[in-house]
From TrEMBL, chain A:
This is SCO family protein. Belongs to the SCO1/2 family. The lineage of its organism: Bacteria, Pseudomonadati, Pseudomonadota, Gammaproteobacteria, Lysobacterales. Keywords: Signal. Residues 1-19 form the signal peptide. CDD domains: SCO.
From TrEMBL, chain B:
Pfam families: FGE-sulfatase. Residues 36-247 form the Sulfatase-modifying factor enzyme-like domain. This is Formylglycine-generating enzyme family protein.
Length: 191, 254
C-alpha cells in the first residue's frame, strides 16, 4: 500500500512536470529547432537544456585570443557562486566553426581546460543553426579567409525557460560584478 | 479564401535569374583580410522581391509563421501588423506590393520553404551594381545620382507593386528604388555604432583581425544600406524592409 502510494505520488509529480513543459514562453531561445552534438558526441535538441539557467557563448576551438577568455569568464562566474548555486548552473559553449570543430576538437578543449562534463557542454551544430542561434543571442560574426572568425564576444545568461536575462562583454577570470549579481539572482530559489 | 494561381507562393521557373558571379568582385566592404574583394560564385536570384500574396501563401501553409502565432523571439510585435488579419491582407494592402514588416527569421524561413535561401550581402551588392545596360554601372555618377534620389524621397506614400520599375540588364527588378532587403549575413557586418564607439574595456569584443572599413566612400546609396542592415536585429521588422530569395544553381557543385 505504501509502495502504491509512493507510485501514485511519483505519477502526479511526473504529470505536473509534463504540464509545465507545454507552455514555452514566447521569448525563449528554446523555440529554435536545433540539434547539438556535445564533446562526447551525444546529440540532443537545444530545447533539452530547458530547466536550468545557463551561461551561453559562441566560440571556436582554434581561436587563440578571446575564446580562451570566454572559458575563463564562465569559470570566474562559477568561482563566484556558493556550492548550491554552482550546482544549479550549466554552461553551454557552441562552436561558430562546425566545419573544423568536430567532437575530438571539442573534447580536447574540455580536457585541457578541465571542464566538468556534469555542467559544461561544448557543442557543435549545423551551419544554419549556428547562424540562427547567433541571431537569437545577438552575436555578430564573419568567417575570415584565413579560417579565423571575427566575432563579438559576450557571455549570456539564459534563464531556465530559455529567456535572455543578461550579458556581459567584460571577459576575463575576474567576473563582471554586475553580471555575477544577475547570475546569482537567477539561481536564487523561487519564493 | 481563394488565391489565383498567379498570386500563390510558388514562383514560376522564369522568376529566377542566373548570374555568372565574379571571383573578385570589388565590394564597398573593405575588410582588412579580404582587400575589398569578394568571391561571388554563380547563383540564381529571384527577379522581384517577395510579394504580400506570396508571403500570404507561405503563412497559410506554415501556421507557426502567422502573425500572433510566431514566437516573439523570431519576430517582434510589429510583424505583418499592416495586414488586416493573420490570413487577410485587407483593402489597404495590395497582393503585388512587396511584403514588408518581416523579420530575418521569417524571411529565411520563407526562402527555405522555396528550397532557396536569402542572398548573401556580396551577392546582393554584385547584382545591384547593374543598370539597364551594364552589369556594373557603379562608376557612373548618373547611376549613383539616380539611386540616391530614391533614398532621399520620404517614404510616406504606399509602396509600388513589385516589377513596375524597369528591369536591369539581367532582368532583375527593384534592387533599388522600392524597399530595403534582408541579406543572410547581415550580422556579419560588424559596423554597428556600438562596435565603433566602444572604449578600452571592450577592445576584446572582436576575436581576430578583419575589422571593417569602407572603400568607395562616394557610393552613399550602398553604404546607407550597410548602415541600416548592420543596425538590425534578427527579430526586427520595418515598414520598408522586405526581401527576395537566392539559390545555388541546380545541379552545380557548390
Amino acid at each position: 500500500m505504501k509502495a502504491l502510494r509512493r507510485c501514485l505520488a511519483l505519477f502526479l509529480i511526473a504529470t505536473s512536470a509534463g504540464a509545465a513543459e507545454i507552455a514555452l514562453p514566447s521569448d525563449s531561445i528554446y523555440w529554435l529547432d536545433a540539434t547539438l552534438s556535445d564533446q562526447s558526441g551525444v546529440t540532443a535538441p537545444l530545447s533539452a537544456r530547458r530547466g536550468k539557467p545557463q551561461l551561453v557563448a559562441l566560440f571556436y576551438t582554434s581561436c587563440k585570443f578571446v575564446c580562451p577568455l570566454i572559458i575563463d569568464s564562465a569559470k570566474g562566474v562559477e568561482r563566484g557562486l556558493d556550492p548550491r548555486e554552482r550546482e544549479a548552473l550549466n554552461v553551454l559553449l557552441v562552436s561558430l566553426d562546425p566545419a573544423r570543430d568536430d567532437t575530438a576538437a571539442l573534447a580536447s578543449v574540455a580536457r585541457k581546460r578541465r571542464l566538468d562534463p556534469a555542467h559544461w557542454t561544448l557543442a557543435r551544430t549545423d551551419d544554419g543553426s549556428v547562424r540562427k542561434l547567433a541571431a537569437l543571442l545577438g552575436v555578430r560574426y564573419r568567417a575570415l579567409d584565413d579560417g579565423e572568425f571575427n566575432h563579438t564576444s559576450a557571455l549570456y545568461l539564459i534563464d531556465a525557460e530559455g529567456r535572455k536575462v543578461a550579458s556581459t562583454s567584460q571577459l576575463g577570470p575576474v567576473p563582471d560584478p554586475e553580471f555575477l549579481t544577475q547570475v546569482r539572482a537567477a539561481l536564487s530559489p523561487r519564493p | 479564401m481563394t488565391l489565383h494561381a498567379s498570386l500563390t507562393g510558388t514562383p514560376a521557373e522564369n522568376d529566377w535569374v542566373r548570374l555568372p558571379g565574379n571571383p573578385a568582385f570589388a565590394t564597398v566592404l573593405d575588410y582588412a583580410d579580404s582587400g575589398g574583394k569578394a568571391r561571388v560564385a554563380p547563383f540564381e536570384m529571384s527577379r522581384r522581391p517577395v510579394t504580400n500574396a506570396q508571403f500570404l501563401a507561405f503563412v497559410t501553409a506554415n501556421p507557426r509563421w502567422r502573425r500572433g502565432a510566431v514566437p516573439a523571439v523570431f519576430a517582434e510585435a510589429r510583424y505583418l501588423d499592416h495586414w488586416r488579419g493573420p490570413l487577410q491582407l485587407g483593402n489597404d494592402v495590395r497582393p503585388q506590393q512587396p511584403v514588408t514588416r518581416i523579420s530575418w527569421f521569417a524571411a529565411r524561413a520563407y526562402c527555405e520553404w522555396q528550397s532557396a535561401r536569402l542572398p548573401r550581402w556580396a551577392e546582393w551588392e554584385y547584382a545591384a551594381a547593374a543598370d539597364g545596360s551594364r552589369s556594373d554601372a557603379r562608376a557612373d555618377p548618373a547611376w549613383r545620382e539616380r539611386i540616391l534620389s530614391w533614398y532621399a524621397k520620404p517614404s510616406t506614400h504606399a509602396l509600388a507593386d513589385v516589377g513596375t520599375g524597369s528591369a536591369d540588364v539581367n532582368g532583375i527588378h527593384d534592387l533599388h528604388g522600392l524597399v530595403w532587403e534582408w541579406v543572410d549575413d547581415y550580422a556579419a557586418m560588424l559596423v554597428s555604432s556600438d562596435n565603433r564607439q566602444q572604449g578600452d574595456k571592450d577592445i576584446l569584443q572582436f576575436c581576430g583581425a578583419g575589422a571593417l572599413s569602407t572603400k568607395d566612400r562616394e557610393n552613399y546609396a550602398v553604404l546607407m544600406r550597410i548602415a541600416m542592415l548592420s543596425a538590425l536585429e534578427a527579430d526586427d521588422t520595418t515598414a520598408n524592409l522586405g526581401f527576395r530569395c537566392a539559390r545555388e544553381i541546380p545541379g552545380a557543385t557548390p
